[in-house]
Structures are given as C-alpha cells and as structure tokens.
Amino acid sequence: MACAAAALAASLACVAGGEEPAPPVADQVPAGDTVVTETDAEEAADETAVGAGEPVGEPTAEDRVEYTGPEQDQVFFQAYWDEGVKYRLLGSLRIEEGGHLRRPYLTRDPLVTGELGFRLHVDASAYVEADGLRQIGDGIDVRRSFLVARGTVFALVYPIDFNIQMGAITSNFFIDTAYLQLNDLPYIGSIRAGQYTAPMSFDAVYSSRDRGFMENPSPVQAFGPGTLAGINVADSNRSRRTTWALGWFANGQEVEVGDASQSFARFIGRATWVPLVYSQPQPALLHVGIGGSYLFSNENSIRYQSRPESFLAPFVIDTGEIDARNAFVLDTEIAFISGPWSGQFEYLQAFVGGGEAGSVDFPGLYFQVNRLLTGETRPYNYARGVFDQLIPNQPLSWDNGTWGALEWGGRYSYTNLDDGPVRGGKMHMLSLGLNWYWNRYIRWQTNYGVSFIDGGPYDGILNVFQVRFQIEV
Predict the structure, then answer these.
(1) pTM (2 decimals)?
(2) pLDDT of 175-211, one tens digit each?
(3) CATH number where 146 lies
(4) What residues make up the domain containing 186?
C-alpha cells in the first residue's frame, strides 16, 4: 500500500505540474500506399508513466490494480489546439501496474473525444448573357456558414461517432449534416443514421472543402441525391481498396443541390475499388466505382434541374414535375492521381417511368482534370473512396517567402433533360478554375465558365465569372 500511495502521489504531482497527455495521433496510410493519406482519426487511451521510463507491456488480469481513492469519481476535461480545436472528456483516475517489471502508471479512459470548428464560404458572381438569354443578376452572398461539432462517445456499450454541421446557406437555416454512426460491427462494418449526403457520385460524396471547382458539375447537380434523411450500412475490405455502402433514404430538408424529386423511399448504394496503386517513380492510383439510386414517388412528382455550376444563378435547365411513379439513376465513376495531376469522370443516366409521361431517359456526364503547380500530390481517402483534403507543402508565409499551393483545373459537363414530352433543356458547359491554398484552413477559388443552353426555362449562352473565399477550421 505504501508503494501504491507513493506512486499515486507522484502521478498526481505529474498531472498538477502541467504534464498533460499528448493529443491523439491520426491514422496513417496503409503500408506501401504512399500516394494516399488517410484522415480518419482514432483516439487512444491516455497513459502517463510514473517514475523513470515507459511501462513495459500491457497489464494482464493478474497485474491490474485499480485505485479506488477520492479521485476515482472525478472527471477530467481537456481542450487543446491540434490543427483545430479538440477536446477530451476523460474518466476517473486509476493506478495500474503492467509488464514484467510491474511499474505503476496513471490512466484515464476517454469518455468523449471530439473537435469544434466552423466553415465559411463567401461567393461573388458576375454573369454575361448572350444569344438571347434573359438577364441574370450579379451577386455576392454567403454560400455556407456552418458550425461544426464531431467526435466519438465512448461511455456507452459501443463507441458512437457523431457529426453535426448546421448554419446558413445564403439567408436560410440549413442542417447540412446530423448523424450518429456505429463502427467496427461484425459483417456490416458501420451503420449510420441521420441527415447527410447520400452515398452516391464521386463528386457529391466528398466535401466542398476538397473539390477542385466551386460547385458540382451539372449532371451531379441534376441527378445526384444530395442531402437526405436515412440510414445506411458501409464497410471496406482489410486493405481498404474496396468500399461499399447501401441505405434507405427519404426526403430531408429542402435540397440546395441534387435531385429535386419528392419521394417517400429511395434505395441508394455505391461501391468503389482501387485496382492500381504505385509509389514509384511518382505517387499514382486508379479509382473505379459504380452507384445507383431507385426512387418511389407517392406524389407522382419526379424532377431534375441544374444551375450553370454557380450557386448564385437560377436553375437554367429544369424538367418541371414529371408525372411518374419511379426512377432509377445509374452512376459510373473513374478517378486517378498521378503525381501533381488528378482527374475524375462520371456518367449518370436517369430512367423514369410509371406515369403519364411514359418511359423517359436523361443522360449526363462530365470530365475534370486538375494539376497542382507547386509539387503537391492530391491525397485520397481509402475509407471513403474519394479525394481528401490538400494541405500545402509550404503554407503561405511572408517571412519565409512561401506562397502556399496553386492548382489549376479544367472541366467539361453535359446534361440533357429533353426526352419525349419532357422538355427541360440541354446544357454543355466548359469551365476553368484556379485555386490558391494559403494553408490547411484558407483557400481562394476563381472559376470561369461558359454555358451553352438549348431550351428549358433559359435559352442562350451564359458566361459565368465567380470567386470564393473559404475558411474552414
């Protein structure tokens, strides 16, 4: 008992003296896949050594000695900065002994870990109309202004992840994300429930923080499911080169981008595979994927529409409400990384039927390529099957003479909403973009695009000039 008391006193003195536990460390990429950094973080239990050296080995049932003094019921809260505002709520203090030397150490089990942040995107757009297209007003507005809270609760039977992102889009309140997720479940991997972006379309699934252009390409805006309320299961194989997700969804909050159909049920799924990964002579990979969405409509109301890849512009092609009872959207996707180059391609087609409009089909596709001019390689997130956040090798610094990261991009997109009695219009669009990453938090985006619109609510040629200031912490 004297030894344990002395060890506890030394441990408490260590904590009181300011030697707090180190913040958690993010997972690394699978061995050999140096092209991709995986950003999923896991919180580890905190262990602070008492006395010289580190504890050797994990404690066994025979070695474990639990402290039951006054500190047993105390809870410890820690907030710190680690590339963002992080926090941990740790459980009761315990003295434990482990390893063949039976050295005592102080431990706390995590109850809750997480991070707090915000997202701010401010857009300014100018439009030049030609070939008879009616006037579209210029504008400047807040594209997104969200508060973010995400983390993991360990105090329950199974750890539960949570993610909440809510705030304003222009002047309207919007819940972008609000879900709970259980991980590491047998056979199904994970299960998620709430409101979030449904798992379909390469460009739709990954964050606006990471996209090479300001807005989704027009076919993804028209046929992608967007933000919905639902539940899905998802998993990846051991190497994480194969992922899949499948879920049931219903209407969530009014969509800002995506399929505008009203439905009481949708089944949505996506599967991806990375067949090729190289680290030499330069990082490279190939991604392929397929997705689908089957929709039942109880209001005979199916609708597809798209803006000219600028959020402050109106919908320039629009089917209106189609009298149909069901629709199936098929999506195929290809993406690649090769050193500073990256690219993505998707073909989507909607098959609509079961109503007075008969069977009508609407196709769309896009191809996009980006190149980093400052030597970085775009990361890839194996767990989600998408590109990940780009962090400049040399953040902007006037003192050091560094300028962050520069990236240019080009994109072509095509969406056809004309078939049979439905005359929603067609749109071809060519876009160029320049992105300037100051650091991991701040980015400027500049896009120019020209839309060739045939039919629909707008008809003619539209030139789009737009810029975005983006900060995400």
Answers:
(1) 0.81
(2) 889 999 998 888 889 999 999 999 999 999 988 999 9
(3) 2.40.160.10
(4) 112-472
